[in-house]
Recover the amino acids of this structure.
């Protein structure tokens, strides 16, 4: 524990004179007016000598000796002593005496005396006894000064009054008073110094112990000032009231003594600390200020080597200069889980720390690690490694981000190929970058490009694709059977991935019987075998077929039908020369118009319609040529016939007949075609014609 003892602590010159005198004069028949000083120990010492304390000169016997303490006393006291033959040992401090002269003169001049001080303080009481005219006491800038508006004022201060408050009161009087204001800054130099030092010590310490009589105005002032700069001020009357527990584990403690506090009180407090096994290093403000000067030479971001001095629950203390100890918070240490014991075992070891803040200096071991990692990363980046950042903002020219402690800038033209209109949409997104350059004008700034990565990847993808295509085209031939996965379908076919290459299976190559939609045959995502139908290497197109690997319907019915069979089917198509009848999926037969009815028909539609189901006889069955010749009339009874001849004409093979119409009772004339009626063309020949049409 470092203990800063105030250099301006202990007896001031005025108090010391009074105490020295009280301790040296013959005690017999000697009295002191009021407590000599506000310190129990000293008062006891004097009392033990036989010097008695009185509150009024009236209590002092004639012919005796009366000590006037350093606070001084009013003129009336001296008058009483003179009248009663009391010998006065005037220990009034010269600073107080000076103030008494000022107020006395002001009173004689009829001016209003204003004392900045505490009304009940003995010094102020004594001063008022010298004013001789109107006088006021103000203790705070918050008092009401309006009464002084029309007065000629002489302002003095209690010698131990707060310098800060006195200055504020001065300002108020200058504004408030409309007549004259004479200001005498009578706060004694030692008080000013002590108050200044108290503030400085308090600023440096974790706690401040202020020692002095609890009724000591100057000591209370010091405590009040210290508390403005330090969160922990311990006010005690003397060393006996000191409790070590209140400062245990603190690193730097200040000891401030009032003007009426003997210097040995500080030594007693130090002794009590050591009794509690504290390792106390007494130092002075100047030492600390000197060390602070060394601290100030640090630069933010500087790496220093420091020695571990001790460890506490909050962190470790290190010494960078061999004297001043600086705490490194446990959160700033490069360790998984902080342990006081583990670091206590490292006392004496040197570690590297980064200065992260100045005044007071803050150090971090983690930042050193981070900095080294960043340096290594920067070396990789400079060597061409890709890195990733999250875009944090934009400026006029591009995107901004941070990589560790380095700012990153991506010019707009380096985001991707082509013009980027909306930069904002990249904010919050990850950017993959490569270094263009590191600008080092002020702090290092990384200028980087995402475009070069994207373009390189695109080129690589295209090269791989070309190589794969080359390999693919080298591996297939027309007629090969390949396995492919259906990736997507369209109205005209399916795109099938064969070894990663998209091939087209046209809808016409999916089924022998024809399909309305691709998905009637193929399912997206499933794998099938296809036959390679066509390869266009230049155009990078491959046509494949599915139906080519499926059995044809005609092969399946080769042994199923034969001439003479009567079959059942549905009319699916009508042409001028006949009707196609579907016997089963993919197997259509033709009923020639002449084979529809025994009657003569001009058009098949006069007897048949699409969708009509009929029975027919197979006249001919040729699976190799995919032909079935059917006849409906062959299974219908031949009507009664009558030969008709027309004079002068070639024999007409059409015969007229009459049959009764059961519905209307009329007879209907009809004609029946036979082969001769086709002008010599055979049905087979006609069917051949039909097949071409088909
Ligand atoms: S504090 Fe100042 S004025 Fe008071 S006794 Fe000490 S030196 Fe004198």
């Amino acid at each position: 524990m470092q203990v800063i003892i105030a250099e301006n602590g202990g007896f001031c010159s005025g108090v010391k004179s009074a105490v020295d005198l009280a301790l040296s004069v013959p005690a017999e028949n000697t009295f002191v007016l009021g407590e000599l000083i506000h310190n129990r120990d000293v008062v006891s010492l004097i009392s033990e000598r036989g010097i008695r304390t009185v509150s009024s000169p009236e209590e002092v016997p004639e012919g005796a000796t009366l000590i006037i303490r350093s606070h001084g006393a009013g003129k009336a006291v001296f008058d009483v002593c003179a009248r009663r033959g009391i010998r006065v040992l005037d220990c009034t401090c010269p600073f107080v005496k000076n103030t008494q002269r000022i107020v006395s003169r002001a009173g004689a001049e009829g001016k209003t005396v204003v004392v900045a001080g505490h009304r009940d303080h003995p010094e102020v009481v004594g001063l008022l006894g010298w004013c001789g005219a109107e006088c006021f006491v103000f203790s705070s800038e918050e008092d009401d000064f309006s009464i002084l508006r029309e007065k000629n004022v002489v302002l003095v201060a209690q010698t131990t009054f707060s310098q800060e408050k006195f200055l504020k009161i001065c300002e108020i009087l200058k504004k408030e008073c409309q007549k004259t204001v004479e200001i005498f800054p009578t706060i004694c130099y030692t008080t000013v110094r002590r108050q200044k030092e108290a503030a400085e010590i308090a600023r440096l310490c974790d706690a401040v112990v202020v020692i002095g009589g609890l009724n000591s105005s100057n000591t209370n002032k010091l405590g009040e000032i210290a508390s403005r700069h330090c969160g922990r001020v311990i006010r005690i009357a003397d060393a006996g009231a000191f409790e070590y527990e209140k400062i245990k584990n603190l690193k730097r403690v200040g000891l401030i003594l009032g003007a009426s506090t003997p210097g040995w009180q500080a030594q007693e407090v130090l002794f009590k600390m050591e009794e509690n096994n504290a390792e106390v290093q007494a130092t002075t403000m100047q030492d600390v200020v000197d060390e602070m000067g060394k601290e100030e030479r640090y630069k933010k971001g500087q790496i220093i080597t420091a020695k571990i001095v001790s460890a506490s629950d909050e962190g470790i203390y290190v010494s960078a200069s061999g004297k001043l100890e600086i705490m490194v918070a446990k959160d700033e240490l490069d360790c998984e889980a902080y342990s006081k014991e583990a670091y206590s075992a490292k006392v004496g070891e040197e570690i590297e720390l980064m200065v992260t803040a100045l005044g007071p200096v803050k150090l971090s071991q983690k930042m050193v690690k981070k900095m080294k990692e960043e340096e290594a990363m920067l070396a990789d980046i400079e060597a061409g490694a890709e890195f990733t950042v999250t875009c944090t903002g934009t400026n006029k020219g591009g995107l901004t981000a941070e990589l560790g402690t380095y700012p990153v800038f991506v010019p707009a033209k380096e985001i991707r190929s082509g013009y980027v209109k909306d930069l904002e949409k990249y904010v919050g997104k990850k950017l993959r970058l490569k270094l263009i350059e590191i600008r080092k004008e002020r702090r290092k700034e990384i200028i980087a490009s995402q475009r070069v990565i994207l373009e390189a990847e695109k080129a690589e993808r295209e090269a791989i694709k070309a190589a794969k295509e080359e390999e693919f085209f080298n591996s297939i031939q027309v007629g090969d059977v390949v396995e492919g996965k259906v990736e997507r379908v369209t109205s005209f076919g399916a795109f099938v991935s064969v070894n990663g290459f998209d091939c087209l299976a046209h809808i016409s190559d999916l089924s022998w019987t024809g399909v309305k939609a691709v998905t009637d045959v193929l399912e997206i995502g499933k794998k099938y075998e296809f036959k390679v139908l066509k390869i266009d290497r230049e155009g990078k197109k491959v046509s494949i077929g599915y139906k080519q690997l499926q059995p044809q319907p005609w092969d399946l019915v080769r042994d199923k039908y034969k001439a003479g069979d009567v079959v059942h089917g549905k009319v699916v198509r009508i042409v001028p020369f006949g009707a196609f009848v579907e016997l089963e999926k993919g197997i259509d037969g033709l009923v020639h118009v002449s084979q529809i009815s025994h009657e003569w028909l001009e058009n098949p539609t006069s007897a048949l319609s699409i969708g009509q189901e009929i029975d027919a006889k197979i006249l001919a069955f040729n699976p190799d040529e995919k032909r079935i010749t059917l006849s409906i009339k062959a299974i219908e009874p031949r009507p009664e016939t009558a030969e008709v001849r027309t004079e002068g004409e070639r024999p007409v093979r059409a015969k007229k007949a009459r049959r009764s119409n059961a519905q209307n009772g009329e007879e209907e004339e009809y004609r029946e075609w036979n082969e001769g009626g086709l002008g010599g063309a055979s049905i087979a020949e006609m069917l051949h014609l039909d097949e071409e049409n088909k």
The chain has 15 helices and 35 strands. The pocket of iron/sulfur cluster is lined by residues 12-15, 70, 93, 95-96, 159-160, 188, 190-191, 218, 259 (CB under 6 Å). The first strand starts at residue 2 and ends at 5.
